[in-house]
Amino acid sequence: MSKSRATVHGAVSLVNAIANKKGATLGISLKVEAIVETSPGKGIVIQSKNQTLSSRLINKTIEKIISKKDLDQNKITVSLESEIPTGYGLKSSSAISSAVALACAKIFKPNLTDQQILLAGVDASIESKVSITGAYDDACSCYFGGFNVTDNAAKKIIRSEKIPANLVAVIFIPKNRKRGNVKKLKTLSSVFENAWKLAKNANYWEAMIINGLATSTILNSDPKIITDLLEKGAIGASVSGNGPAIAAIVKKGNETAVKKVFSSLDGSIIVSKINNKKAEVHEL
After folding, report:
1. I want to staple 207 with a disulfide (CB 3.0 to 4.6 A). Which of 55, 97, 132, 195 is the partner?
2. In Å, how far are 161, 232, 236, 248, 284 from 251, measured between CA atoms?
3. What is the Cα–Cα distance from 274 to 268, expressed in whole angstroms?
4. Digits of tens for pLDDT over the chain (284 positions)?
């Protein structure tokens, strides 16, 4: 019997990758913990308080790491705890798949590289239809923390660096989970390409603002919210992922004015520190 625990954090979008398969993200401190335990028997058991988690994604991720022979000889129990609201664009599925892959690798394949562990979750996301692009950009910021600018098609990090520690993310979680048609994001592919180039050159906040205005226009959000957030001191603001969450990045101490913009809307607000820490795994 073996047991391990992996901790992986969430992220928010700077540039949406759907249009061009190129994205940019930054890490936040909301986290997922996955405990993987082996016992005599066979089969995969998933324990979680959150019923909306994709068991398909978790099963696929496990199959990417653990060989069929080992799966036939061990019962695998996965216990998940997540601070990240699921289905809002805050990268919960990338964090979950990375945490499960990391915890499984600790027991069965301790020599796997970070890239191999990351790709197990990315490929599982595509195969279980949780993500269109595999969300390599999301997975990188969840796993490594910091800023990550990626080419999702090539599965390569183009730029990564730490986020200044004096920043926090103020995140709005709308009550209405309705999203727009994400396929329509491709109509603005040249806008997203320009935003991505800005991020590649470390102009992260400009990239985020352009992304915010473009995505909110298409994904049933009001672009005026983005400009209101900037007026109140946010240095960057955008719909995160495919929404409907909206994230604003502010300097510590400026949270109140930005929270006020969200307080008139129907939903809840989360204030999260940024995260520069890499994913961690321990044997228990």
Report:
1. 195
2. 18, 11, 10, 10, 37
3. 19
4. 899 999 999 999 999 999 999 999 999 999 999 999 999 999 999 998 776 667 899 999 999 999 999 999 999 999 999 999 988 999 999 999 999 999 999 999 999 999 999 999 999 998 988 876 779 999 999 999 999 999 999 999 999 999 999 999 999 999 987 777 888 899 999 999 999 999 999 999 999 999 999 999 888 788 999 999 999 999 999 999 988 999 999 999 999 999 999 998 999 999 999 999 999 999 99
For residue 3, report the phi and psi dihedrals to the nearest 5 degrees.
Answer: -150, 135
Query: How many C-beta atoms lie closer than 10 Å to residue 24's C-beta?
Result: 28
- Is the dihedral angle over the CA atoms 149, 220, 128, 85 positive or is it negative? positive
pLDDT, residue 183, reads 85
The b-or-e profile of 40-62 (16+ CB within 10 A means b, else e) is eeeebebebeeeebbeebbbbbb
Reading the block at residue 49, the tokens are: 């308080």
Q: Match 């239809």 to its residue by tokens.
A: 129
- How many CB atoms are located within 10 Å of the residue 177 CB? 13
